[in-house]
Amino acid sequence: MSRAALLVLADGRFPAGGHAHSGGAEPAVTAGRIKDAVTLERFCRGRLHTAGLVAAGLAAAAAAGCDPLLLDDAADARTPVPALRQVARRLGRQMMRAARATWPSAALDALAAARPRGAHQPVVLGLAARSAGLDPLDAAYAVAYENISGPATAAVRLLSLDPFDATAVLARLAAELEQVAEQGTEAARRVATEGGDVLPAASAPMLDITAEQHAAWPVRLFAS
Predict the structure, then answer these.
(1) Tens digits of per-residue pLDDT, 37-90?
(2) How far is it, in rounded angstroms, from Cα 88 to Cα 75?
């Protein structure tokens, strides 16, 4: 295992398409729910413990060797909103392209063939982590971090927020990110014996509602 691969996978410059997505921050800024570092932290904390936790469980399970097609179905069941399903698969398709170029593997090829329109991004990320020689906890860390770093970066662009303040928000959430990654990994360990229902299924209704609204905007800075 090369832990350095985790740095590559979690790097915001890894060409997985995340820079074009705000993780719900754009509609939250427009609605006035994110207006400064304090409200950004509140938003990121909520996202981390809901969407981030679900993603951490899925990614860890994929990295642990669970059937990615079953995990993709589990991701669908945990993503009731069509707009977010489309986003997850679009990001998964881009992640797949980057992962296959970086860490080629038969497992990635098989998933790409089975899901030509893209599998859910956390599942692809977990499989990419496995192909890179990383463990399930590494995958959970990477996807949990992506779930809050995306909105933080978007807030800098949307609000002209001081990037030092946005980075400080991520630093203050570090302990909670560790907790979420460990929770997702622990759930993933149980999948082999208890089935996919043990994976986290935390909901974030406001993210669901605003994702559908945002998808209908005629003009927007971010794809989601």
Answers:
(1) 999 999 999 999 999 999 999 999 999 999 999 999 999 999 999 999 999 999
(2) 9
